[in-house]
Each structure stands twice: as structure tokens, then as C-alpha cells.
Amino acid sequence: MRIVFTAGKRRLNLVLPPVVFTKTEVLASFFLCWSAEAEVTNTLNKACIDGGSFLLRIGAYRDSCPEAETIIFSWVERAVTEDPRMPASLLRLHFHDCFVNASHSLYIYYVGCDASVLLDDTPNFVGEKTAAPNLNSLRGFEMIDAIKSDLESVCPETVSCADILAIVARDSVVLSGGPVWEVQMGRRDSLTASKAAANNNIPGPNSDVATLVAKFQNVGLTLSDMVTLSGAHTMGKARCSTFSSRLNGNSNSNSPDINVDFLQSLQQLCAEPNSNTTLAHLDLVTPSTFDNQYYVNLISGEGLLVSDQALVTGDDQTRGIVQSYADDPTTFFEEFTKSMLKMGSLGPLTGENGQIRKNCRIINQF
Length: 366
Description:
Keywords: Calcium, Disulfide bond, Glycoprotein, Heme, Hydrogen peroxide, Iron, Metal-binding, Oxidoreductase, Peroxidase, Secreted. Substrate binds at residue 203. Belongs to the peroxidase family. Classical plant (class III) peroxidase subfamily. The active site is at residue 96. The structure is a single chain. The protein has 366 residues and is mainly alpha-helical. Among the domains are: 2-49, no CATH class; 224-341, Peroxidase, domain 2 (Orthogonal Bundle), CATH 1.10.420.10. Helices cover 43% and strands 6% of the residues. It has helices spanning 23-34, 43-49, 68-82, 86-98, 141-154, 161-175, 195-201, 209-218, 223-229, 244-248, 260-270, 293-299, 306-313, 316-327, 329-344; strands at residues 2-7, 10-15, 104-105, 108-109, 237-239, 279-281. Strands 1-2 form a two-stranded antiparallel ribbon. A hairpin with a 2-residue loop joins β1 and β2 (10-15). α3 (68-82) packs across α6 and α12 (293-299) packs across α14. Residues 1-45, 103-109 and 251-255 have low confidence and may be disordered.
């Protein structure tokens, strides 16, 4: 449930999971979030104002597992050295996790960032790994396994898989040159997963702006959040099969949506044998750096995916945001951290809901 309090020019968004709260609990959360002055310095209050959840908190493992974030960071740091693609892969895992099982109707928000994406299939459900947006696409599962195993040896059944995903996403951005932010923690892990939900909820690479906006609004994110979070495509790669419609191009039209030289380079790359498995950089200029180059590329007609370039050609409002980020990397970094915080707090499982999995691939046996 999202509760919005407004007083004068100040507005607070409180995100609650789909469980029953007493009137006293809701009012207590309101006063916790409202207690800061206009110049907010308290991290809890700032999180509430920026769209985070009061049920999550910074430093949640400070006492129960003080080494948790250090252990996770060291694993991600090693991965960046060994596999330049890993930062983008870990960031994408968090995104795909948060969009599944997350939906809302009026004021009710359902669970999103719950590590359901990590679950293997069982006799009771088909998981999300084989869904169309994930099959032969998502990677980094072994890295999460290694991190979880390490954490379990230090502080058993303490750090959730959902929190691991949120932390590795942040660390991947930081280690790639992007902004730093404090991750809210306290999520618990789901007891199920849904291939159907993954197929329905995750935006596809050929989506137009209207579809993208609808998918994001379905989980409580705005058009601006959509353009901002798309900036994660400043890292990573995509198969030729995911942007095949871009290869036809319309560079000969009066209003081309693809740069001619860029088109020719893609056509050459994807003309190779077994091109369906050939990979292209989402950002050809600075492929391993988290920066605003993605937006600069879009302005130049060098968006790899249809859904990327549509942000410039498909809507004046999204084009304006793209232009502002292309012009000012600082603004992009600031807004990206806010949108990541907001996405990461989509109806988290907390309290006694869900569980802390011992193995991120399977639910604990009761």
C-alpha cells in the first residue's frame, strides 16, 4: 500500500507491503518520515521522501552481520576484474526481479524485489529463469550463489537473497564509475516465482514508449523513472536477435531514427554466421563505464534496441528527459539513484512475510 501525505509543498510517499497494518502503525510511520526539517539529512526521512520504504532501512545488518556489505563488495569487485560484463548482468538481475510479482491497483502494491528471479523450477511452480525476457539472457546466478554461501558461513540465515540483489546492483554501478547511494535493506525472500508474470511484466526490447510507460506504471514507477532506469543500458550487451528490426533501419527516410554508420556496423556484425548469438554493446562508445553516454548515443541515432531509440523518436516528453541527461551527467546520476531506491522498495516482503533463504535457488524446507 502506498500512502501519500501532503502538507503545503511537502509530499511523502510511504510504501507498505500487502499486509494488514493497524492505524497506530501507519501513524507511527508517518511521524518517523515527517520528523525531518525541509533540509533533510536523516537517511530514513530522505528515503521516505525520495520514494523508498519506511519498512526498509539503511544499515539493517550493522549488528546482525556487520561484514555483509564488505563481503558482497569484494565479490563484485573480483567479478568486475574477471568478467567485464558482470556489472551489467548483476544490475539487470535486480531490475528483472523487481518487476515480477510487482503490480498495483489503486493504493495496493504487491511484492516485487523478492529474489523470485533466483528460484529454480519446482513441482509446484515454473520459475522465471526460462521466461522469454530471461532465457539465455540473464546471467550472474553463480555469482549470487557464491556470495550467499560466503555470507551463510559468516552469519547464517541473516542476509536475504533479495537484499543481496539490491546491494550487488549498487556495487556494480559504483565499480563501473557510476554514482554511490546507500541501499535500504530488510527485504525477505519469496516462497514462489512465476514464469507467466515475468513474461507479462518485463518490458521487451521492441516496446514503444506507450508500452514502456504502461509497464513501469503497473509497478508504481513513472515515465521519468522509466527513462532514468533505461540509462542502465549504458553497460551490457544484447544479441542480434533482440534488435533485428533495427537492422532494416530507415536511414534513407527524411527523418532517420538510426545513424547510417551505426546501422552499417550493426549489419556487418550481425551478418556473421550464428549471428543470433552474436553480441553487440548497448553503448558502443563506453561499453564498460556507467555514464550518460547512452543518452548521447540516443540523440545521435545510435540506440541499439527499438525500445532505446523510441525514447527519442516516440515521445516529446521522453526526448526532453533524454536530452537533459545527455547534457548533464550529474543530473542523470542524481535521478538514477532516486529511481533505483524507488524501484528497490516496490512492496518489499518484510517482518514475518517470506523467509531468509539459505540457498537462493530453493526455498527453505519447513
